[in-house]
Specification:
Layout lengths: L1 H21 L10 H8 L9 E6 L7 E4 L5 E4 L3 E4 L5 H12 L9 E7 L5 E5 L5 E3 L7 H7 L13 E6 L2 E6 L2 H6 L14 E4 L1
Parallel strand pairs: 6-10
Antiparallel strand pairs: 1-2, 1-5, 3-4, 6-7, 8-9, 8-10
Length: 201
């Protein structure tokens, strides 16, 4: 019930942004797209995701585990590790550090996302099929727009924004359609984080 309320609140907030943007003709702020891409290219694991944990020459630590609703995974010998909200590299490093207590040498551990279940993005506004989408891999803005059926004839492609809520608060990142599609500059076609909302005025 709480999760449903949170999703509804996110959609309502995005609609509020849409209304505000429709009456605003101000130019989009400059964005360091390379920095944004680096920050979002590493997927943050969430509850329900299935992780493949592999330890080199160590079958005891090698397991496929599901992230529990409380965000933890359980690894033999190591115990519970917080996985939700972290990258696979961060999870692998903690498993290796914790397991080092039981071995003469620190084990070499890798973690991959085997199944993606917590990832969801929203596309709102002037698209053919607005709503929530749960792809099985991280997608970019263009891919999200394609999932939503593309623009309607009333859309303003030059005013598309990504609404993102993270540790820095709520941000609005412009998607410069002409640069990405017209000029082929894919730096602005950013990977979307879970719960990002693409707003099309």
């Amino acid at each position: 019930m709480w999760s449903r309320c949170v999703r509804i609140a996110l959609l309502c907030s995005a609609l509020g942004v849409l209304v505000a943007l429709s009456g605003c003709g101000a130019s989009a702020p400059r964005v360091d797209f390379e920095a944004e891409r680096r920050a979002t290219s590493a997927y943050a694991v969430g509850p329900g995701d299935v992780l493949e944990v592999r330890a080199w020459k160590n079958e005891a630590l090698s397991h496929r585990v599901t992230v529990r609703p409380d965000g933890f995974i359980t690894i033999p010998l190591v115990g519970d590790i917080m996985a939700s909200g972290r990258t696979v590299m961060g999870i692998a490093e903690e498993i290796a550090n914790q397991a080092a207590r039981f071995y003469h040498e620190k084990p070499v551990v890798s973690v991959e996302v085997a199944e993606l279940h917590s990832y969801r993005v929203y596309v709102m506004g002037e698209v053919s099929r607005p709503g929530e989408f749960t792809p099985r891999a991280q997608i970019t803005v263009l891919q999200a727009l394609a999932l939503a059926g593309g623009f309607t004839r009333f859309a303003d492609p030059d005013e598309v924004v990504i609404v993102r809520r993270d540790a820095h608060g709520e941000r609005r990142i412009p998607f410069v359609f002409e640069d990405v599609v017209g000029q082929g500059d894919l730096r602005g076609d950013l990977p979307l984080q879970t719960n990002d909302t693409v707003v099309v005025p």
